[in-house]
Automatic annotation (TrEMBL):
SUPFAM superfamilies: YbjQ-like (SSF117782). Gene3D superfamilies: Hypothetical protein apc22750. Chain B. Transmembrane segments: none annotated. InterPro entries: UPF0145_dom_sf, UPF0145_YbjQ-like. Belongs to the UPF0145 family. This is UPF0145 protein HQR01_13235. It comes from Erythrobacter mangrovi.
């Protein structure tokens, strides 16, 4: 399945628009708290283990979005937007969301 942040896919005319699709993943309090503790320890450097957690969350959110597109009969998602939001009463969780428009090309 093609997934792009652009509104069109060059060389692939859009036959039909199937609506908004999205996927969300929420990382719990411990992961998020540990991430900031780790970042303090690695100030000025990269925290590889936490980057992998965020990459996995992003990948899972995109996979959920693709699955919803597939259920609607689409074979591509255009105009994809990725968002990262701190949520919870004390900002103890991180939500990664992917949204776009399901299309048939």
């Amino acid at each position: 399945m093609l997934v792009t942040t652009t509104p069109t896919i060059e060389g692939h005319p859009i036959q039909s628009y199937l609506g908004l699709v999205s996927g969300e993943v929420i990382l719990g309090a411990n992961v998020f708290r540990d991430m900031f503790a780790g970042l303090r320890d690695f100030f000025g450097g990269r925290a590889g283990s936490y980057e992998r957690v965020l990459q996995d969350a992003r990948q899972r959110a995109v996979q959920e979005m693709q699955a919803e597109c597939d259920r609607r009969g689409g074979n591509a998602v255009v105009g994809v937007d990725l968002d990262y939001e701190v949520i919870g009463s004390k900002g103890s969780m991180l939500m990664v969301s992917a949204s776009g428009t399901a299309v048939r090309i």
